[in-house]
UniProtKB/TrEMBL annotation:
Family statement drawn from the similarity comment of this UniProt entry: Belongs to the peptidase M1 family.
Reaction catalysis annotation: Release of an N-terminal amino acid, Xaa-|-Yaa- from a peptide, amide or arylamide. Xaa is preferably Ala, but may be most amino acids including Pro (slow action). When a terminal hydrophobic residue is followed by a prolyl residue, the two may be released as an intact Xaa-Pro dipeptide
Protein name, entry field: Aminopeptidase N
Transmembrane segments: none
Residue ranges constituting the Peptidase M1 membrane alanine aminopeptidase domain according to the UniProt record: 228-441
Organism taxonomic ancestry: Bacteria, Pseudomonadati, Pseudomonadota, Gammaproteobacteria, Thiohalospirales
Keywords noted in UniProt: Aminopeptidase, Hydrolase, Metal-binding, Metalloprotease, Protease, Zinc
Function: Aminopeptidase N is involved in the degradation of intracellular peptides generated by protein breakdown during normal growth as well as in response to nutrient starvation.
Region of interest called Disordered, as start-end residue ranges on this chain: 861-876
């Protein structure tokens, strides 16, 4: 499979003004008639070029050019495209009639069935599975869509835009016509047909327009839409206030779908959501679910401006819409809850998934320069690092400057398909700034390493910082240029307050935090007028996606963890302290010793327990040790067993040593009242359940009883699941009892069953591979449902390192077998599962060899370009 290259971009030879689609919907075989009004693209400069339409897995029934049927002699068609070599010089119309098989579509791209519904997923290249079409994001057209189907099975027929007509057909069929006034690329097309219940709400925009909000679910889920609708209204209001962006249609539709390859999709006026990210009721969804729903609903809504009104010229520009939209989503999340907690959680995600990607064989720039399968590039780098890059721009230009730049971008490019370059130019122009060096963040892969060293001269009252940046080599990019790094910092004094910062040559001191903009490989700064040696608080708020190396002592970290005025860095200091000591313990295990609870960690946690907790959510995070996946990134050669032993020794040690503290913390923060999704209540539950987790790390009779009681009595899924998770990780008789009771109670609720599956797959207890095999044989499991695959295999391979990396390689074998089974059915999901194997080179020799062997097996047997590309890059 040949790669597609950014440098090969050519504008489309033909533009498309309007498309008229007519669907005769049937799950077995759906007929599609597409009428396209085309004309040569004056900007292409290719008069007389052949007309190339994309198409995949289609049955071609009829082709017309300007009303005349075309015969095989005058066009050619293969597995990927249909080419008409000669078309008229001016405007012309093409009519294509095709048939597709929704029920047989296991890839869940294009038109497919989910439960009794028919639905679509077109981004990035799914529309070509519906009809022959110029399926590229820079071809925008106005769509009219007529859906015709059996009324009894498909009473509800939805598409983008406004419903303009409807009527009866023959033999129990009916039809509905939709018109979308906004030109859009094919990837934003959507349709849904099914027997659905509609939850409705309303929103009045800032300028006074009324918008109907329709959320469609299956009838039995009708009581689970309130939170998503409330989140939608919050998002709509927030985008008006923060960006001055209003919604532009009279109708906003959201549909919950059970079989969905990813989280959700921003189709114009008709969002499709994985039901996991839309349905919630206190007894079935956790606080994490509620938080995710708010974020994803916001994310898809924000795409209406960053993605839909202004879209991408080509798929290399994916981060133009995704990085910017994730950043907007993060701002929204911060505004809806605690800023520090939101920042901690997004940095945790970045470091948990993107840093490893950036350090491995699948590393790529935020704007990649080539791909084989674009579906493989919906990555943490394009999304999360892309958002960090936008955040740096926001910080560099300031809130007003950034807003002015965005205003300029919306105004100038509305209705167009543009590039990252266009976005940056808009920011530059509106701020009269030069962002030339900043562009490296888009083209250069790898996480910059910041080596910071200091020296204090008591006599002179000066504090010197020497900062060196270095970005490690990544595939295809052996040498790197320095990138501009905004280093937010503070100097913390002995009393815990920020000291004034005055650089040599400056007139006045700055109080609080300041930002040093690093541009060169090495830079030196001298702070003056200091009467004591400060502790530098570096990269406050995680001001750049970089890794800081500074030789902190335990005492300095403890000082920052207790006092830093930057709440993110307060948390960060504690994590760094824990990491240093856990890694030292893991090393001890590797050299034949035994892991124990490190003293400084013990002290840090007991100090936290003694201090009053004003922000429960923040405290819960501070009390949580970095997970094994994150610790692994800092290990020279990863030994999953040693890491697990080290972390467990610390956890059980803390459980033992601080038992009283955990009990009283739990008592103090257990929420008595009815469930409410409010930041404060969420924080209390998180903290009480963190305490429960410690109590259950070394479960005595009392802890077991309390945990079982919480499991049985909880009126909300957050508390019930926290108890179940603790039980499932302990080898105690209550474990089985609780797992059975939970399944008994929730077996008819697929989203809750997913949690039950994931908890077992992620349990570190011995026999993980066998447990996962048994789960895959369980009637609740299904290989055709991506949520089930993620719940079992995703949880096992990504959140259960000690079992997945079992020394005999059985975990790797199981994963590779599954990839092969999915390869022919749903290559997109199959390719994602290859990810955990790609970091094989980082592991101790026997694991390295076993992972490598599985990758070789995949290389030999896998057929899809999706899996093929991942494996090739992994073996690199
Ligand atoms: N834009 C979609 C992602 C489509 C992924 C296709 N493999 C969801 C989102 O980012 O909002
Ligand atoms: Zn998105």
């Amino acid at each position: 499979h040949a790669p597609v290259r950014l440098t090969d971009y050519q504008p489309p030879a033909y533009l498309l003004d309007t498309v008229d689609l007519h669907f005769q919907l049937d799950p077995g075989r759906t007929r599609v008639r597409a009428e396209m009004a085309l004309r040569p693209n004056p900007a292409a400069g290719e008069p007389g070029a052949p007309l190339v339409l994309h198409g995949q897995e289609l049955e071609l029934l009829r082709l017309e050019l300007d009303g005349e049927p075309l015969t095989r002699a005058v066009y050619s068609v293969d597995a990927e495209r249909l080419v008409i070599p000669e078309v008229p010089d001016g405007a012309f119309t093409v009519v294509v009639e095709t048939a597709t098989r929704p029920e047989a579509n296991t890839a869940l791209e294009g038109l497919y069935t989910s439960g009794g519904k028919l639905c679509t997923q077109c981004e990035p290249e799914g529309f070509r599975r519906i009809t022959y079409f110029p399926d590229r994001p820079d071809v925008l057209a106005r769509y009219t869509v007529t859906l015709e189907a059996d009324r009894a099975s498909y009473p509800v027929l939805l598409a983008n835009g406004n419903r303009v007509a409807a009527g009866e057909g023959e033999e129990g069929r009916h039809w509905v016509r939709w018109e979308d006034p906004f030109p859009k690329p094919s990837y934003l097309f959507a349709l849904v047909a099914g027997d659905l219940t509609c939850c409705t709400d309303r929103f009045t925009t800032a300028s006074g327009r009324e918008v109907d909000l329709h959320l469609y679910t299956e009838a039995h889920n009708a009581d689970r839409g309130d939170h998503a609708l409330a989140s939608l209204k919050q998002a709509m209001r927030w985008d008006e206030e923060a960006y001055g962006r209003e919604y532009d249609l009279d109708l906003y539709q959201v549909v919950a779908v059970d079989d969905f390859n990813m989280g959700a999709m921003e189709n114009k006026g008709l969002n499709l959501f994985n039901s996991q990210f839309v349905l919630a009721r206190p007894d079935t969804a956790t606080d994490a679910d509620y938080t995710n729903i708010q974020a994803v609903v916001g994310h898809e809504y924000f795409h209406n401006w960053t993605g839909n009104r202004i879209t991408c010229r080509d798929w290399f520009q994916l981060s133009l819409k995704e990085g910017l939209t994730v950043f907007r989503e993060q701002q929204f999340a911060a505004a809806m809850g605690s800023e520090a907690v939101a920042r901690i959680d997004s940095v945790d995600r970045l470091r948990g998934a993107q840093f490893p990607e950036d350090a491995g064989p699948t590393a790529h720039p935020v704007r990649p320069s080539e791909y084989v399968e674009i579906n493989n590039f919906y990555t943490p780098t394009v999304y999360e690092k892309g958002a960090e890059v936008v955040r740096m721009l926001h910080n560099a230009l300031g809130p007003e400057g950034f807003r002015a730049g965005c205003d300029r971008y919306f105004e100038r490019f509305d209705g167009q398909a543009v590039t990252v370059e266009d976005f940056l130019t808009a920011l530059e122009e509106a701020n009269d700034r030069d962002l030339r060096q900043f562009r490296r963040w888009y083209t250069q892969a790898g996480t910059p390493q910041l080596e910071v060293r200091s020296s204090f001269d008591a006599e002179a009252g000066t504090f010197d910082l020497c900062v060196r940046q270095h970005t490690p080599a990544t595939p295809g990019q052996p040498a790197k240029e320095p990138v501009p790094i905004p280093l937010a910092l503070g100097l913390v004094g002995a009393d815990g307050h920020d000291l004034p910062m005055q650089l040599e040559g400056e007139e006045a001191a700055i109080h609080g935090s300041r930002v040093l903009l690093l541009r060169y490989e090495e830079e030196r700064f001298r702070f003056t007028g200091l009467t004591e040696e400060p502790v530098p608080s570096l990269l406050r708020g995680f001001s750049a996606p970089a890794e800081v190396d500074y030789p902190y002592s335990d005492a300095e970290l403890a000082h920052l963890a207790g006092h830093d005025s930057d709440l993110f860095n307060r948390w960060e200091a504690g994590q760094r302290l824990a990491r240093t000591h856990l890694l030292a313990q893991a090393d001890a295990v590797r050299s034949g010793g035994e892991a124990r609870l490190p003293g400084p960690l013990h002290q840090a946690i007991s100090r936290l327990l003694e201090a009053p907790a004003d922000d429960a959510a923040l405290m819960a995070r501070a009390l949580t040790l970095p997970d094994e996946g994150q610790l692994a990134e800092y290990m020279e050669t990863i030994d999953p067993d040693a890491l697990h032993a080290a972390r467990e020794a610390a956890r059980t040690g803390l459980a033992r040593e601080l038992r009283e503290g955990w009990w009283s913390l739990r008592e103090q923060f257990r929420d008595a009242g009815p469930y409410r999704f409010e930041p404060e209540a969420v924080g209390r539950r998180a903290l009480a359940n963190t305490a429960l987790g410690y109590l259950m790390a070394e479960p005595d009779e009392a802890a077991r009883e309390a945990c079982m009681e919480q499991f049985r009595e909880a009126d909300n899924m957050t508390d019930q699941l926290a108890a179940l998770r603790a039980l499932a990780a302990s080898d105690i008789p209550e474990r089985q009892e609780a797992l059975e009771a939970f399944y008994e109670r929730w077996q008819d609720d697929p989203l809750v069953v997913d949690k039950w599956l994931a908890i077992q797959a992620a349990s570190p207890l011995p026999g993980g591979v066998e447990r996962v095999q048994a789960l895959m044989d369980h009637p609740a499991f299904s290989l055709t449902n991506p949520n089930k695959v993620r719940a079992v295999i995703g949880a096992f391979a990504m959140r259960n390192p000690v079992q997945f990396h079992r020394p005999d390689g059985a975990g790797y074998r199981l994963l590779a077998d599954l990839v092969l089974e999915l390869d022919g059915r749903n290559p997109q999901i199959a390719a994602r599962l290859v990810k955990p194997l790609t970091r094989w080179r980082r592991f101790v020799p026997e694991r390295e060899a076993a992972m490598h062997a599985e990758l070789e097996r995949l290389r030999e047997r896998a057929g899809s370009p999706d899996v093929g590309e991942m494996v090739d890059r992994a073996l690199g």
